[in-house]
Write a structure and sequence with these properties.
The chain is α/β, with parallel strands linked by helices. Helices cover 37% and strands 17% of the residues. The chain has a 7-stranded mixed beta sheet, sandwiched between helices. Helix 4 links the parallel strand 2 and strand 3. Helix 3 runs parallel beside helix 4. It is globular. It starts with 7 loop residues before the first helix and ends with a helix. Bound molecules: pyridoxal-5'-phosphate (PLP). The site of pyridoxal-5'-phosphate has 16 residues, from helix 3 and helix 4.
């Protein structure tokens, strides 16, 4: 049986392991050398590191491209924005991960790019925004935290017609939920901090490029700008990745149950659930104060930012000053973990009832 025919659930476990030679470790070591004896493939560790390579091999196999690890999701995102030449036009979602939009605003304010915001769930608006030559089309689907979906094949077609490099933040869907490169995107980014690492104990980011050319440009950028991850952090993310399929199965199944029950809840005005993934956003009846009170009342769910870990988290997003104002004040984002779904429901239901 060839490795090409393995299912993602197998790749997640098997890719990026040392070769099956007698005496070899089952896991890659945490490689802690900053320099190497001359004559080998890597001379200095800003250029490459075997622990990064193991993680990159596994993620690259899952997404169907060439991966690079970064010290955070934002470092990976900043590296992809840097692919757009100075003075070029960049199209971004009008609502997406708040710090990505803050970066786009900063680049616009500094005169680096003309940044155009568009509702990426609206095909007509997207077509209009892409009627002009564009260097970079930034997509996120499902979006954080509104869980809007973008028609990726359509956006890819329109984006390429405008001359754009197409980047997709795949943090919410994970490669088990969707593989944007197979749909024609040029580069995928991840906050590996979230589902890939999965235990809320490490920050890490990644890019996955479809072409060797884009991969090479990103690798040169990482080496020159120096945004490299720690070997131990990368090792932790790879260790977390090994159980992604099990965590994903449980968390997405529980999210579906919770979303359905929330739909009929008297304390909830609106439920947003993309039908993919383990994030559910709710609008709590009674406004921001009522939403804050729900976050304070849960005992099992932790009131904390972030998502994608084994433990369930919730927060009111607009408490962050950077959050786009298109996000309702009473929106609480739920990151469903892998605990027993009935325990999660009882705790959330009690918090909502006050
Ligand atoms: C958290 C997040 C990021 C940023 O990643 P960091 O690892 O925190 O830098 C980017 N995109 C999305 C969708 C996220 O949820």
């Amino acid at each position: 049986m060839s490795e090409q025919s393995w299912s993602p659930a197998t790749v997640v476990v098997a890719a990026g392991r040392p070769a099956h030679t007698p005496g070899a470790g089952v896991n890659p070591p945490v490689e802690l050398s900053s320099t190497y004896v001359a004559g080998g493939p890597v001379g200095y560790a800003r250029v490459g590191n075997p622990t990064w390579s193991a993680f990159e091999e596994a993620l690259g196999a899952l997404e169907g491209g060439s991966a690079l690890a970064y010290p955070s999701g934002m470092a990976a995102i900043a590296a992809v924005f840097a692919l757009a030449p100075d003075g070029s036009r960049v199209v971004v979602p009008d609502c997406a991960y708040n710090t990505t939009l803050a970066l786009a605003d900063e680049l616009d304010a500094a005169g680096r790019h003309e940044v155009v915001r568009v509702d990426i769930a609206d095909a007509d608006a997207l077509a209009e925004a892409l009627a002009h030559p564009t260097a970079l089309l930034w997509l996120e689907s499902p979006t954080n935290p509104l869980l809007d979906l973008c028609d990726l094949p359509l956006a890819v077609e329109r984006g390429h017609a405008a001359g754009a490099l197409i980047a997709v933040d795949n943090t919410f869907a994970t490669p088990l939920g969707q593989q944007p490169l197979a749909l024609g995107a040029d580069v995928v980014v991840h906050s590996a901090t979230k589902y890939l690492a999965g235990h809320s104990d490490v920050l890490l980011g990644a890019t996955v490029a479809a072409s060797p050319e884009v991969h090479e440009r990103l690798h040169t950028h990482r080496t020159v700008h120096g945004a490299i991850p720690g070997p131990f952090e990368t090792w932790l993310a790879l260790r977390g990745l090994r159980t992604l399929h099990l965590r994903w199965e449980r968390a997405t199944a529980s999210a579906a149950v919770i979303a359905q029950r929330l739909a009929g809840h008297p304390a909830v005005e609106r439920v947003r659930y993309a039908g993919i993934g383990a994030i559910v956003s709710i609008e709590v009846r009674g406004g921001a104060d009522a939403a804050d009170a729900v976050c304070e009342r849960t005992r099992l769910w932790t009131f904390a930012t972030s998502l994608g870990g084994v433990e369930s988290l919730l927060e009111r997003r607009r408490r962050h000053p950077l959050e786009p104002t298109t996000v309702p004040e009473n929106l609480v984002r739920l990151s469903v973990g892998i605990e027993d779904v009935e325990d999660l429901w009882r705790d959330l239901d009690a918090a909502l009832r006050g």
